[in-house]
Amino acid sequence: MALDAADLGPATALVCRECGEKYDLGPRYACEQCFGPLEISYDFAGVSREAIEAGPRNIWRYRGLLPVPSNVESTPNTEPGLTRLVRADHLAESLGMQRLWVKDDSGNPTHSFKDRVVAVALAAARELGFKVLACPSTGNLANAVAAAAARAGIRSAVFVPSDLEQQKIIVTAVYGGTFVTVRGNYDDVNRLASEIAGEQDDWAFVNVNVRPYYAEGSKTLGYEIAEQLGWRLPDQIVIPIASGSQLTKIDKAFQEFIKLGLVEDKPYKVFGAQATGCSPVAAAFKAGHDVVRPVKPATIAKSLAIGNPADGPYVLDVVRRTGGAIEDVSDAEVVEGIRLLAATEGIFGETAGGVTVACLRKLVSTGALDPEAETVIINSGDGLKTLDAVAPVVGPSAEIAPTLEDFRASGLA
Amino acid sequence: MSTVSVRIPTILRTYTGGESEVKADGATLREVISDLDAGYAGIAARILDDGGKIRRFVNVYVGDEDVRFADGLDTATPAGSQVSIIPAVAGG
């Protein structure tokens, strides 16, 4: 592949997080020495609040902090990001909290935070000479990849577990492209994708062989939260954990903003949220382990159902370093969390959002999280994609005839 | 002695002369990796850490089973098994 011509912006190299081995930028994702994950290193220049504020109203306002070309906005992409940060006073009140915000990432083009990571992966994949945009997915990523490829005018190849929610199947299929359901769970699909990536040289599996670039897209969540709070960091943040990448990248974003002097250096605590039916990172945290033992997932929160989370050990590092905690909640609590967020703030989150809200509630009740301190939680996707989760427990208040008499008789006035 | 087929990830193909799938002998995964190293010197040290355990960021499968859910390096590898070595850094 023609790497000489590649423009990856401020990115300078790939460095192994485990052993420190350094590599030239390219289509690599695992260290040749130890299989450790590769992380992008940068040489930032010309990044200021003013430059960011003058940028486009999407993630490309942060292009000077991402491994993407300087003209990234000029190629067709879904232009995700700058989703709303909602002041959640009613939810706060119901939980006995003072100052709570919801970063509502359901507002992205395909209704989840995955548009962020895919946009960065697409930009890097183009530069690295890949021809096909591919992924294994629990659903949200499938939507995002299929849409981004359609917008970019390239082929997509998407692999999902065959038992995925019907809504996520349909909203992926509608974009066209190659779309394969696999008889297995997400970890099986992920393994298959890794094997296919070893055969198909020009397929960019966004979260496999271009993962170092892809994962950086989640930093934009952290940048936006800080910018939308008026260029400052929250005291506490609660983030759902699937692979764990989103959590570690939001922390990375906060750290970069501190180092670049864009926000004041202050302590903040990072909390993780999992569903009990797939809680390997919460289990490791609670047991005091620094390795994560893989599990076989069994939860309605399918977008978080990664039994073997690649970034689990780094999540543990971040949470412990910042003085946070990792909590997990039952499926019933997840459903309750979805309803609570919807009923208090008018935000219909998907199951991952329910996990986060329910974990927030639990963290407050255990005292791990300070209800007086300013807190941000992430709603990473749209409830319309996981209707099955709440369909059995919500419905109309009554059915009546189209007459005033019937309305009066219903006792709803 | 049973012969199995081993799928080699891209980053280890420098050891196998570019081959993506090779044969090895052994009744357990431990023996298979040892035999693999006899044919492709140095490859075992990429898969196993200094303590002889499977590296944190390597997933090894015998058939469909992640060996971490089975008996680790002592997982049986019956004749004709498919062993896959895969970087764990993916997903999500």
From TrEMBL, chain A:
Entry's EC annotation: 4.2.3.1
Enzyme class name: lyase
GO molecular function: L-serine ammonia-lyase activity; threonine deaminase activity; threonine synthase activity
Alphabetical UniProt keywords: Lyase, Pyridoxal phosphate
InterPro entries, per database record: Ser/Thr_Dehydratase, Thr_synthase-like, TrpB-like_PALP, TrpB-like_PALP_sf
Keyword set includes Metal-binding: no
UniProt KW Lyase keyword: yes
Family named by the database record: Belongs to the threonine synthase family.
Protein name as annotated: Threonine synthase
Species of origin: Thermomonospora umbrina
From TrEMBL, chain B:
Coiled coil segments of this chain: none
Superkingdom per UniProt: Bacteria
Pfam families (alphabetical): ThiS
CDD domains reported in the protein's UniProt record: Ubl_CysO_like (cd17074)
PANTHER family: SULFUR CARRIER PROTEIN CYSO, SULFUR CARRIER PROTEIN SLR0821-RELATED
Full protein name: Molybdopterin synthase subunit MoaD
Species of provenance: Thermomonospora umbrina
Lineage per the UniProt record: Bacteria, Bacillati, Actinomycetota, Actinomycetes, Streptosporangiales
